[in-house]
Specification:
This is Acetate--CoA ligase. It comes from Thermodesulfobacterium geofontis (strain OPF15). The chain has 688 residues and is of the alpha/beta class. The chain has a domain of 123 residues: ANL, C-terminal domain (GMP Synthetase, Chain A, domain 3, 2-Layer Sandwich). It has 21 helices and 32 strands. The strands form 9 sheets. Strands 13-12-9-7-8-15-16-25 form an 8-stranded mixed β-sheet, sandwiched between helices. Helix 8 links the parallel strand 7 and strand 8. Helix 7 crosses helix 11. The model has no long low-confidence stretch (mean pLDDT 95). It binds 5'-O-[(S)-butoxy(hydroxy)phosphoryl]adenosine. The site of 5'-O-[(S)-butoxy(hydroxy)phosphoryl]adenosine (WT7) has 22 residues, from helix 13, strand 21, strand 26 and strand 27. The site of 5'-O-[(S)-butoxy(hydroxy)phosphoryl]adenosine has 22 residues, from helix 13, strand 21, strand 26 and strand 27.
Length: 688
């Protein structure tokens, strides 16, 4: 009894100590529904309003045949869903297939000379590059041959550290052809952040590039790759080979020269393997396709492992029936391939359907905020896929789509909640009221969309994501696991009642973390083999309206979503603590007009250190160098002490209030020194 009570108090304190995005979320009222334009109602793959019924609960899990049958299988599966070891579900058991074959080879007959990838460089005077499915097939084979010659084989891991160039999907697909597990690290991450992911994945080979263009600047990326390899070596992990692509075929453009014996230019290797064909390796459906690292609530990123069969079926299925990508579409997703959105909705999903994807190297605001519409006009883009942060920025910079002649059918938004006024601009100015805005909610862990409406038959709801995606049954639980009924207006934990094929297989080398992070809290019976007892916990807060449309409020845990990028608060705090003199660090989400949230960092100093702008700057740079520019705190405030509870926990909730200019601190009686709150307020907002 006593132990239980103590635990409860501990929990309370823990709750006080952390602050979630959902708690600082801006609430907007009930917003209207908008019917899809008539043209889309006619053209969409799904025009039958009863289509959703195929995926109703009674048909689960067999309903996912519809997705899996979009793929070519070397051996058909015998069991759709194996739940014998919850929550490590296995989909399409007994089946064998190859992801590269499905995304490339099988399209040659029908679409061989159709564009698979249109690559648009950031410098506007540089010509585009088009790869047909034949080109892709040819190049993927040569790269696969190179990988094979290095002794890499199915089940090995390789880390890719590459920007938005066609060589990235080529390399990913070459890995997939051989069953090699790729782990692509976002090129905007720092060298040390990349090192951490190389070590965790135990990759012996790193594939990178000399440099690339971003926002008008040449980024010398090989330098970052060197840092990654060196940091890994310092921590006892040897990267044996580094393969380097060149942004320009005829020159190597990095200050960091290739290191004899370790570094190899892809250009030279490709020459040796020119014209080679490599048979694809049929892989078990439940084998890993790739690892994608994401931030969690501890300092260490989690490696989400995605499967070949379930994942590919899920992304192909959502791309066809929800995203509504047709072979004649030009699909442009602005996300970086280094994030899950790029893996699922630039590379694997669209290519599995034989679509044409446009890949743009740079930022949408370069050289001016009309660039996206010039690209759309010039290449006939029909589907645009981006994040609210990009839309907000373009809108703010005075981007004017009306000057350009293009026509979108589908406008996807993903990554953060989209405010009604931003939604309206996306729909009216960007979409010219001819396109459907599709707000898609999901996560790195989930492989593909969890909530989205069917664009041809269901209305959009401004500022809300849709109902559960096909075959997905979301539910909202309160703190104690009781269901909050739709239409009640109350927020709670959004969970998914059932398994689905896109969910990660596990966390790389840490399966326990999957149970703890996503299932433990609301698991009804840990002994049970019935999936109904194992709801998936997304970690977001949401409300659900009467019609079953969900509105996501933000994370409920120690994660901050900055401009659609997910950052762990502990990662940022640990980076700050590496600076000499820093005693304590606490980071909180501050609402930001452009980025959704930005991290505000509070630090206190050890005895003998005086607050100075230099220390604040050092802390900023430390976070930037250890994680990457996206994590850079908006502000670093040096405070005399943290608002702390008697048990010594920092009350981040109070700091979040201060950052967001709010004085509704709530109960401050548990603080050791309540007067500190006023002092910190003055530091942040000035006196008065
Ligand atoms: C978190 C997942 C998977 C796509 C990119 C981000 C937030 C995602 C939405 C949306 C409101 C959203 C959630 C989620 N999020 N989509 N449509 N509306 N919030 O992937 O880095 O794994 O982050 O992004 O908070 O948990 P991620």
């Amino acid at each position: 009894m006593a132990g239980g009570k103590a635990k409860e108090i501990e929990k309370e304190i823990e709750k006080e100590a952390r602050i979630s995005e959902a708690e600082v979320a801006v609430h907007w009222g009930e917003e209207e529904y908008i019917e899809p334009p008539e043209e889309i109602k006619r053209q969409a793959y799904v025009t039958d309003p009863t289509f959703r019924e195929k995926f109703k609960e009674e048909n689960f899990p067999e309903c996912f045949h519809i997705y899996a049958d979009l793929l070519d299988w070397d051996r058909y599966w015998h069991t759709t869903l194996d739940t014998s070891n919850p929550p490590f579900w296995k989909w399409f058991v007994g089946g064998k297939l190859n992801a590269c074959y499905n995304c490339v080879d099988r399209h040659l007959k029908k679409y061989g000379n159709k564009a698979a990838i249109i690559w648009v460089p950031e410098p506007e005077d540089e010509p585009k590059r088009v790869l047909t499915y034949y080109d892709l097939y040819y190049q993927v084979n040569v790269v696969a041959s190179v990988l094979q010659s290095l002794g890499l084989k199915a089940g090995d891991t390789v880390t890719l550290y590459m920007p938005m160039v066609p060589e990235l999907p080529i390399t990913m697909l070459a890995c997939a052809r051989l069953g090699i597990i790729h782990s692509q690290v976002f090129s905007g991450f720092s060298g040390p952040a990349c090192a951490e992911r190389i070590i965790d994945a135990e990759s012996k080979v790193l594939i990178t590039i000399d440099g690339y263009w971003r926002n008008g600047k040449w980024i010398d990326h090989k330098k970052n790759a060197d840092i990654a390899v060196n940091v890994a070596a310092e921590r006892g992990h040897k990267v044996e080979k580094v393969l380097i692509w060149q942004r320009y075929r005829d020159r190597y453009n990095s200050e960091s020269k290739p290191i004899e014996g370790r570094d190899f230019l892809m250009k030279d290797l490709l020459k040796e393997h020119r014209g080679k064909k490599v048979p694809y390796v049929p892989m078990p459906a439940e084998a890993p396709l790739f690892i994608m690292y994401t931030s969690g609530s501890t300092g260490k990123p989690k490696g989400c492992v995605h499967s070949i069969g379930g994942y590919l079926a899920y992304v192909a299925g959502t791309c066809k029936y929800i995203h509504d990508i047709h072979p004649e579409d030009i699909h442009w997703c602005m996300a970086d391939i280094g994030w899950i959105t790029g893996h699922s909705y630039i590379v694997y999903g669209p290519l599995a359907l034989g679509a044409t994807v446009l890949i743009y190297e740079g930022v949408p605001t370069y050289p001016d905020p009309d660039r996206p519409w010039r690209i759309a006009e010039r290449y006939g883009v029909t589907i645009l896929h981006t994040a609210p942060t990009a839309i907000r920025l373009l809108k703010k910079l005075g981007s004017d789509p009306s000057k350009y002649d293009y026509k979108f059918r589908i406008l996807v938004t993903v990554g953060e909640p989209i405010e009604p006024e931003v939604w309206r601009w996306y729909y009216t100015a960007v979409g010219k009221k001819q396109a459907v805005v599709l707000d898609t909610w999901w996560q790195t862990e989930t492989g593909g969309w969890l909530c989205a409406h069917l664009p041809g038959v269901e209305p959009m709801k401004l500022g809300s994501t849709g109902p559960g995606a096909l075959g997905i049954y979301p539910v909202i639980y309160d703190e104690n696991g009781n269901e909050i009924p739709p239409g009640s207006g109350k927020a709670g934990y959004i969970c998914i009642k059932n398994p689905w094929p896109g969910r990660m297989l596990t966390i790389w080398k840490n399966p326990e973390r999957m149970i703890k992070g996503y299932y433990e809290k609301f698991c009804k019976n840990k002994e049970s083999k019935d999936w109904r007892d194992w709801p998936y916990i997304a970690g977001d807060a949401a409300t659900c309206d009467k019609r079953g449309y969900f509105r996501i409020l933000g994370r409920m845990d120690d994660i901050i979503n900055v401009a659609g990028h997910r950052l762990g608060t502990k990662e940022i705090e640990s980076a700050a603590l590496t600076v000499e003199g820093v005693a304590e660090a606490a980071v909180v989400p501050k609402i930001d007009e452009l980025k959704g949230h930005v991290p505000d960092l509070y630090i206190s100093l050890k005895d003998g250190y005086e607050p100075s702008p230099e220390i604040a700057e050092k802390v900023k740079m430390a976070v930037r160098n250890i994680i990457g520019p996206i994590a850079t705190p908006a502000h670093v405030y040096i405070v005399p002490d943290m608002p702390k509870t008697r048990s010594g926990k920092i009350m981040r909730r109070v700091l979040a209030c201060i950052s967001n200019g709010r004085k509704d601190f709530g109960d401050l009686t548990t603080l050791i020194d309540p007067s500190i709150v006023e002092k910190i307020w003055e530091i942040v907002h000035g006196e008065g």
